[in-house]
Amino acid sequence: MQKAKSFHAQKAVGRTMIYLILGICTIICILPFIWMLLTSVKSTAEAYKFPPTVFPKKWLWTNYTNGLQKANFPLYFKNTAILTALCTIGTVLSAQYVAYGFSRFKCKGSKLWYTLMLATMMLPNQVTLIPQYLLYLKLGMVDTYLPLLIPSWLGGGAFNIFLFIQFFRTLPKELDEAAFIDGASTFQTFVYIMMPSVKSVSLCVLVMSLVYNWNDFFTPLIYINSTKKFTLAIGLQFLNSSMGTTKIGQMMAVAVATMIPVLIVFFLCQKYFVEGIKMSGIKD
User: Fold this and answer.
1) How far apart are CA 184 and CA 177, in angstroms?
2) For the chain, percent of residues with pLDDT exceeding 90
3) Is 60 among the domain residues?
4) What whole-number distance in Å separates Cα of residue 154 and Cα of residue 10?
5) Residue 196: which of 181, 179, 213 has the closest Cα?
6) Among 10, 94, 251, 264, which residue carries the largest CB count within 10 Å?
7) Is the four-CA dihedral 9, 15, 17, 23 of positive or negative sign?
8) How far apart are CA 143 and CA 119, in angstroms?
């Protein structure tokens, strides 16, 4: 009896410690976002005041209207939305297609190509940056969106392909065989049988790709030169360099407005995101 009570007490203490650690980590992660929200409605003098105030004495909601106007937010939002949508769709479709080939068809050298594809995950982007830039420069694609779109429509990244492969391997091959017996081609089997079966992983990759492309700063900075083609990430940095430290409230207001679409999509698809990550780790 005493052993049972001691066991339950240890279990309760362990669970309490886990919740405490998770709570502390959550607070640490959310504090910068709360600071950004509060700073977005503060005056510049109050934002730099020391010791800092938690809540603003005067809530300056005009920081949002003035900041969005100065940042040319509608144009940059349109550029980012179109680019993110095209990259996300291309990533999901092409990663599915490549993964289907690797998981269902075996040929001479397929294992080698699969290993080389996974090896690209070990390479930092900075290693391939200069060769890629010179290639796109020779092809006349610099200052266009093509260097950002082409990789998404030609595989969508090794990690995304890996997630789809892991899930495709859990599907019985009898599905393919039944479709072939009914007269379906390989492409029809992929579209009508395989794609609906990987919906959870597709939504997971969709969310990850959307968040990445929406917040991507480095790649557009390298290839985009025209101001009219800037994305929100570059436009925000451009606004920062033009304002300096005198309009931090407006800077934070634009940053909050930039984050809202991604947060909405993530919270709506959070269930499918976690489910896709979990199920992609299942093997035969």
Assistant:
1) 10
2) 13
3) no
4) 53
5) 179
6) 251
7) negative
8) 30
**Residue at token pair 């939504």:** 203
173-224 pLDDT, tens digit per residue, is 888 888 888 888 888 888 888 888 888 888 888 888 888 899 888 889 899 9
The DSSP output letter for 224 is: -
* Residue 280's pLDDT band (cuts 50, 70, 90): very low
Amino acid sitting at position 266: F
CA angle, residues 115, 176, 281, in degrees to nearest 5: 45
Same domain, 189 and 133: yes
In which domain, by residue range, is 26 found? 2-39
Phi, psi for 52 (deg, rounded to 5): -70, 150
Whether 63 is in a domain gets the answer: no
pTM for the model: 0.79
Count of structural domains within the chain = 2
Handedness of CA 155, 159, 164, 166 (dihedral sign): positive
Q: Do 13 and 112 sit in the same domain of this protein?
A: no
Q: Regarding predicted confidence, which is higher, 22 or 69?
A: 22
Q: What is the DSSP string of 139-170?
A: TT-TTSSHHHHHHHHTTS-HHHHHHHHHHHTT
Residue 229 vs residues 3, 22, 140, 220: alpha-carbon distances, Å? 69, 41, 16, 9
Residues 34 and 154 reside in one and the same domain: no
pLDDT-derived band at 124 (thresholds 50, 70, 90) equals confident
Q: Tell me how many helices (H) and strands (E) the chain has.
A: 15, 0
Is residue 163 one of the residues assigned to a domain? yes
Q: Six-digit token pair at 47?
A: 């934002």
| pLDDT on residue 82 | 93
CATH code, domain with 250: 1.10.3720.10
